[in-house]
Amino acid sequence: MSIALNIINIAGREAQEHGAAEIRSINIEIGALAGVEISALEFCYRVARKGTAADRAELVIDEIQALGFCRHCEKEFPIDFFVSICPDCGEAVNEIRKGRELRVRSIQIV
Ligand SMILES: [Zn+2]
């Protein structure tokens, strides 16, 4: 629930700064390894937006593919877990370059 509230607060502040009364949509990015369950977030969002400037705003979610980096091969590749194996050399990879983000990318205001 706190994630949904944060998103709405961020979008609400942004709308206020632009003098908008209503938010039409909120576009967010969620990394595959951000630890966010999207269906749960969507549910919380629909509850949390009630009575706010985002009351009728659509939540548009972009899922970001996680990327790992192998220091041995100096290559990036898509991963699904925190602990992965480099597809080229088979070494354990522990550097995560992408996939933990959770941010409001843009909002559409009326
Ligand atoms: Zn490698």
UniProtKB/TrEMBL annotation:
PROSITE patterns: HYPA. It comes from the Bacteria. Gene3D superfamilies: 3.30.2320.80. GO terms for molecular function: nickel cation binding; zinc ion binding. GO terms for biological process: protein maturation. Pfam families: HypA. Keywords: Metal-binding, Nickel, Zinc. Belongs to the HypA/HybF family. This is Hydrogenase maturation nickel metallochaperone HypA.
